[in-house]
Amino acid sequence: MTKAITPEWIAVDWGTTHCRAWAMGADGEILADARSSAGMGTLEREGYEPALLDMVGAWLGGRDGENPMRIICCGMVGARQGWIEAAYCAVPCPPLSPDLTRAPTTDARLDVRIVPGLKQQKPADVMRGEETQIAGFIALNPNFDGVLCQPGTHTKWVHISAGEVVSFQTAMTGDLFAAISGHSVLRHSVSVDGWDDDAFDAALSDGLAKPESLAARLFALRAEGLLHGLPNASARARLSGLLIGAELAATRPYWLGQQVALIGADTLCAHYATALAAQGITAKRTDGDALTRAGLIAAHSLTKEPTT
């Protein structure tokens, strides 16, 4: 439990593995924050309300059914397997819809609203959680016209124009890296946390120039380790470079000649910044947590009842 405070409302970023909440003041200031390992992947539907109360119960103060606490949530909490499904909004559209989904609660002090994700009909694609960071980025960069790259387990490439998401494309690069490094024969070759910049750069160029050779290049990492003593750190960097290079080849229409901003974890964004710089693109770096909060603030502003 956190110390008792009196926030105006509460912002929550609820992912697959973790959850984070911020107690928000009237002017957007952060009064306190709380973290939990009770992500979507660990919860049954009936477990969400208790998990939320474990995090923010001390912040509810004198709230009651007549004056419940407004709680704005984004992320996998709104997935089909989450607390309640928040239906996708179809692009092109603004990243946020004013029609947030209300979660069912038994505690009268809670008024929980969930931000919907975005969907693209052709080619079929979906996102959930990233739309809130996009909204935060647009709130802080209202004149941006270009592409947002959100590296992660499922990297998003998002075309932004006039404050709307025009289209987007997802690449499972992070998922592939985790699966290959943890569950394939290459797990014996990349089982260190070291890094080799030169190996990454060379593999990046190779993956971008010849993405059709990816499967063969991957096994070569194992063979070079066995026959020529390729260090595990170099093999790990080459694996990352090959996968990101192939991703850049597939997403070329998104980044070529575009203004690009990166949203995500520092280390991963640094690899993408290096990859884009090799193609003459200087990507803008951002603070992902700050953008998530800015997006949740924007979502909260959409749910405020008008004054009369």
> Strand count, sense and closure of the main sheet?
6 strands, mixed
Number of continuous helical runs: 9
Q: Could you please say which CATH topology of the largest domain applies here? A: Nucleotidyltransferase, domain 5
Whole-number mean pLDDT: 95
Structural class: alpha/beta
Q: Approximately what portion of the residues adopt beta-strand conformation?
A: 15-25%
- Poorly predicted sequence stretches spanning 5 or more consecutive residues: none
CATH homologous superfamily heading of the largest domain:
2-keto-3-deoxy-galactonokinase, substrate binding domain
Main-sheet strand order equals 3-2-1-4-7-6
State the CATH class of the largest domain.
Alpha Beta
Q: Whole-Å distance between the termini?
A: 37 Å
CATH architecture of the largest domain: 2-Layer Sandwich
Map the helices and strands.
Elements: E1 9-14, E2 19-24, E3 30-36, H1 48-56, E4 69-75, E5 89-90, E6 101-102, E7 110-114, E8 118-120, E9 125-127, H2 130-140, E10 146-150, E11 155-161, E12 164-171, H3 173-183, H4 197-209, H5 214-228, H6 232-250, H7 252-255, E13 260-262, H8 266-277, E14 284-285, H9 288-303
Parallel strand pairs: 1-4, 4-7, 5-8, 10-13, 13-14
Antiparallel strand pairs: 1-2, 2-3, 6-7, 8-9, 10-11, 11-12
Structure, described:
- This protein is of the alpha/beta class and 308 residues long.
- The chain folds into two domains: 9-128, 2-keto-3-deoxy-galactonokinase, substrate binding domain (Nucleotidyltransferase, domain 5, 2-Layer Sandwich); 170-285, 2-keto-3-deoxy-galactonokinase, C-terminal domain (Nucleotidyltransferase, domain 5, 2-Layer Sandwich), CATH 3.30.420.
- Helix content is 36%, strand content 21%.
- Strand 1 and strand 2 form a beta hairpin.
- Helix 2 (130-140) packs across helix 9.
- The radius of gyration is 21 Å and the shape is globular.
